Amino acid sequence: MTRYDNQQFKSKTFVVEECYFINCTLSECDLFFSGGDSEWINTTFHNCRWHWRGPAGATIRLAQLLGMLKEPTTIPVELQKLNSKLN
Hints:
Helices cover about 25% and strands about 35% of the residues. The protein is α/β, with parallel strands linked by helices.
């Protein structure tokens, strides 16, 4: 796991499970999350895009199906591909 301390990132891509952020700011970043362990301490996000994969994506889709989460107004590309396979 890579540790980032007191850094600012803009327009970067991260696999969440591979990172440990402390006192960081992420702006306009792409964050890929599969449901594994991650660490965020005093970290802020500005206009970041979350990409839900694997078990995390399945959990989000189930929560939307059950009405626990609103469906996004725009569907991320990876969900569009999954939806086309299911239909």
